[in-house]
Amino acid sequence: MPAVPVLEVRALTGMGEVRAGDDLAALLVAALPCPPADGDVLAVSSKVWSKAEGLTRPAAERDAAVAEQSRRTVAARRTTRGLAAIVESAAGPVMAAAGVDASNTPAGTVLLLPADPDEAARRLRARLRELTGVRLAVVLTDTAGRPWRVGQTDFALGCAGLRVGDDLRGGVDAEGRPLEVTVRALADEVAAAADLVKGKVLRVPAALVRGLAAEVGEEDGPGAASLLRAPGEDWFRLGHVEAVRAALGAAHLAPPPVAPGPVGERVRRAVAVALAAGGGGCTALPHGREVRLAGGDGVALGMLVQRLLAALWAEDLRGVLRRDGDVVVVSAETARQR
């Protein structure tokens, strides 16, 4: 059985505020809690890299910055403060607001992520080696939420010198059963462990992780970009609301609010989505929980009914049908009524 590694994670304190033009590597070395050793990993917040590189924008231009840093929208909701969006960022990962951040930044500014996080990690690693003479790895970290889970955790935005993934496929578990899908995101695990001793509230932007020398190599390696799932392999490339709207030709409509609102409001949104690509000569008139659909021929009316049922589902409502002469009446039920 292989030896179980013993990890030591120590915060780098006392760095002070990082400003544009600062030698970030020199600041990190000065803050090290102990002399560095071959095989150590430095987990560094991408925020201080962005500060040192001057990747700032006026806070008034935040929305424009988010748009510029977004490659595609996964999900979006309206809030009282504006639009909240989960997007594929220019830096690579899918995350909120493309990683444009206003926390722990100079007043009136927001920070952008590095355009190429892995290249940033490589540059920082090279400078650290120049200053220390030892073989370190660098994990450039950021914070993101996760599907199906409440709360945020740090992950590897960029990486250099550390094996980013531990592919166990083809091996066997402790009982001898074959492993077919298990690939550990090692760089992400390092980032999350380091965040236990650093973070926004503590104002500690970096941590030293010791005990993973076997995972640290001479070469920079493929970087954290190798952990990104290609859109074609992503089962969750759109939120459920966005997927329904895209299928119904309604992607151009304004995103729904974070708080769904009263049933009548949700029904009206569903009608707008159902009619977004045209009604085929049919009408759909909402009134409270009910929608009355009429007109057109039988095929067009049936199509509009099905579009409305799908749009109601995206609003967490279920449509119940009944006939009233030539009119189809769809009544919306909430989850509690099912």
TrEMBL record:
SUPFAM superfamilies: CofE-like. One of its GO terms (molecular function) is GTP binding. The keyword Repressor does not apply. Residues 16-211 form the Coenzyme F420:L-glutamate ligase-like domain. Keywords: GTP-binding, Ligase, Magnesium, Manganese, Metal-binding, Nucleotide-binding, Potassium. Pfam families: F420_ligase (PF01996). InterPro entries: F420-0_g-glutamyl_ligase (IPR008225), F420-0_gamma-glut_ligase-dom (IPR002847). The keyword Ligase applies. This is Coenzyme F420-0:L-glutamate ligase/coenzyme F420-1:gamma-L-glutamate ligase. It comes from Kineococcus xinjiangensis. The lineage of its organism: Bacteria, Bacillati, Actinomycetota, Actinomycetes, Kineosporiales.
